[in-house]
Amino acid sequence: MPETLINIFHLIFSESFILTVVTASTPLLLASSGELVVERSGVLNLGVEGMMIVGAACGFAGAWTSGSILVGALFGVVAGAALSGVFGILTLGLAVNQVATGLALTIFGVGLSGLIGAKFVGERIVPASHLHLPVLTDIPGVGRILFGEDPFVYVSVALLIGIWLFLYRSRSGLVLRAVGDNHASAHALGYPVLRIRMLAVLFGGGCAGLAGAYLPLAYTPFFIPGMTSGRGWIALALVVFASWRPGRLVIGAYLFGAVSILGLALQPLQLGIPQQVMNMLPYLATVVVLVLISRTRGTAGSAAPASLGSVFVPDR
Fold it and tell me: In sequence order, what are the residues at sequence separation of 6 or more whose Cβ sits closer than 8 angstroms to the Cβ of residue 91?
């Protein structure tokens, strides 16, 4: 038993495991960062999974057609933003229920991605290259982790820092948080609530589309239907786990990323645990986290935007 624990310890802190955790966490961090901004504005979009899978299909289609990873990433962003625009028109323009619309968006996205990606199943592309700085990347232990990742990893970190600065160090971020906390008061002060929320929804959709595009452009160099595998739902849970705060989102994303690949990493140790149980770990962790948060509503619930999910119809 002690030898097994030592082997697990060495595995978890090995360079290869940490590198795998970083890549597995990047789509979660990208998608949850965008959803955090959306929910901070008072809108609840449950269609993250649908926007991610459409972003994956369009991102791969763009990269395969053009031969450029950058073009593929842009295709993913535009696809996610376009799908979120439909959500915005329905929920903000027509005041349709946000929960029902988000669920419908996910179902629609899964079907649309299958249609778009049907001709690309089985095709392969050259994945995004990794950064290599001659001296820094070769530093033992931390070189590849800090200076040898693909561009999407650095974009995800920069994006989260930018969101933190926007929310807490800018007037626009203060206005967005005010809209999420009390849309009636913000409207009374003259702020365009629906416009602000629409921009937040489009931003969140673009982030979800980029997160989906990351999967075929860097994580695996091919497209298969349903390749998001529920990551959109985990991203939604991460926002709650982080109490709607960007700083905690990093911890949550990398924690869930580690859990998601732990089962595969532990296979060589032959612990006798069925693989099906290991595959359940990230989703089981999601359920456990949500249950724990629901039992502590006094602390976690108070951090949620007060107007989250509430329909706003401006006075005529």
Answer: 43, 97, 98, 101, 311
What are the tens digits of pLDDT across the range 22-68?
999 999 999 999 999 999 999 999 999 999 999 999 999 999 999 99
pLDDT digit string, tens, across residues 120-132: 998 999 999 999 8
Residue type (1 letter), 31: A
Number of domains composing the chain: 1
Residue 99's domain spans which residues?
A: 25-124+137-303
Which residues, 6 or more positions from 213, have their beta carbon under 8 angstroms from its beta carbon? 55, 56, 58, 59, 60, 72, 73, 75, 76, 77
pTM for this structure? 0.91
Q: Cα separation of 213 and 61, whole Å?
A: 10
CATH of the domain at 155: 1.10.3470
Whether 276 is in a domain gets the answer yes
Residue 230 is encoded by which pair of tokens?
């529920």
